[in-house]
Specification:
Elements lengths: L20 H31 L24 H15 L5 H27 L7 H22 L7 E3 L7 E3 L4 H19 L7 H18 L2 H7 L10 H19 L8 H19 L2 H7 L1 H20 L9 H7 L4 H21 L5
Antiparallel strand pairs: 1-2
Length: about 350
């Protein structure tokens, strides 16, 4: 919306600032942050009244979590509201990548919202059928991957780039749609599994968003991409604004989610934010880098897969409890200790991910 003001820069020179992605990204961060700050308390009050007893707490989970009973969920609504408003205000709305990523985010958020709604209304820690939910996610992610593939340069539309190598491409052809769908869906569910402690998921999401905001900006700029010898993907620079909106909304949410949390993001937020990161990674051709930057999410997801597989095959558990953060809680770590140490891991992984841009 504000991007269109650049058309009047000949009449009023300062309006030319709206052509700069960096300026609009900063604006997106502040707008989303202020939106959540201003409207967050009212949304929390509304959700508390509507939900009554709040999010159901697993009886078989860490006993310390039982004290969180009554805390409302669906806090992802405030994140998505600030996120969407900021994008519509600051992004170039003629850019198709913006609509693809925004669409994935909102649809994944809607799927998560329905799941949260069933949990709250039925007073159970499980939502609707996992298979149906996964199928819906794969369909949406597949459509997004197909759209991204059509927009990409013909030389690497169906290819996967490999970090640390300048010209190495893995050509998948039409199978790229399947690969992209798995990346987006996997990212959404990995963040969803990570969201189990106050502040645990949102900070690593913001760290990953900041990393991919830089990657998107560099990939979308021909000069910077050429200097770093990474693949130039025209138009993806605009995704930096989406990353900025995610950071701003995330900071606003963290204000209310900091221990002791006033609200949980729920599947509404975690599934949407993970889907957004996955879609940005597919659009910028940095899917493997996402596995590095979002390595914490990968570890959390793997811990669940390993735990379930081991128990089904041998009847034994590898971890004291899955996902991984619960394992460390069961070992005696305080919740704050787990959260801060996982944040540190996320920062280290983000730095490694950024290193792949130059080490080639």
């Amino acid at each position: 919306m504000l991007y269109e003001l650049r058309e009047f820069s000949e009449l009023l020179g300062p309006l030319n600032v709206f052509t700069y992605i960096t300026f609009r990204t900063g604006g997106a961060i502040m707008t989303a942050l202020l939106f959540v700050f201003l409207f967050g308390p009212a949304m929390i009050d509304m959700l508390r009244i509507k939900q009554g007893k709040g999010q159901p707490i697993r009886e078989d989970g860490p006993q310390s979590h039982l004290a969180k009973r009554g805390t409302p969920t669906m806090g992802g609504l405030m994140i998505l509201a600030g996120f969407t408003f900021s994008i519509l205000l600051w992004a170039n709305l003629s850019n198709t990548y913006v609509w693809i990523v925004l669409g994935v985010t909102l649809v994944f958020g809607a799927i998560g919202f329905y799941d949260d709604f069933l949990k709250v209304t039925k007073r159970t820690s499980s939502g609707f059928s996992g298979r149906i939910r996964l199928l819906l996610e794969l369909i949406v992610a597949g459509l997004a991957a197909a759209a991204i593939m059509r927009m990409s340069d013909a030389n690497f539309a169906g290819a996967v780039t490999v970090p640390f190598f300048k010209d190495l491409l893995i050509q998948l052809g039409p199978l790229f749609i399947v690969f992209g769908a798995l990346v987006i869906t996997g990212s959404g569910n990995a963040v969803n599994l990570t969201d189990g402690l106050d502040g645990l998921a949102i900070v690593p999401v913001m760290i990953a968003a900041a990393t991919f905001g830089l990657i998107a900006y560099l990939s979308g700029n021909a000069k910077f991409a050429g200097y770093l010898q990474i693949h130039h993907v025209p138009g993806t620079g605009e995704l930096a604004i989406i990353c900025g909106a995610l950071i701003g909304a995330g900071l606003g949410f963290l204000w209310f989610n900091a221990p002791p949390a006033m609200i949980f993001m729920g599947d509404t937020g975690s599934l949407a934010l993970g889907g957004a990161l996955g879609a940005i990674a597919v659009a910028t051709k940095h899917e493997i880098v996402l596995a590095i930057v979002g390595g914490l999410f990968v570890l959390e997801a793997l811990s669940v897969i390993i735990q379930v597989t081991s128990f089904k095959l041998t009847g034994k558990r590898v971890f004291r409890m899955a996902p991984l953060h619960h394992h460390f809680e069961q070992k005696g770590w305080q919740e704050a200790t787990v959260v801060v140490r996982f944040w540190i891991i996320s920062v280290v992984l983000a730095l490694i991910g950024l290193a792949t841009l130059k080490l080639r």
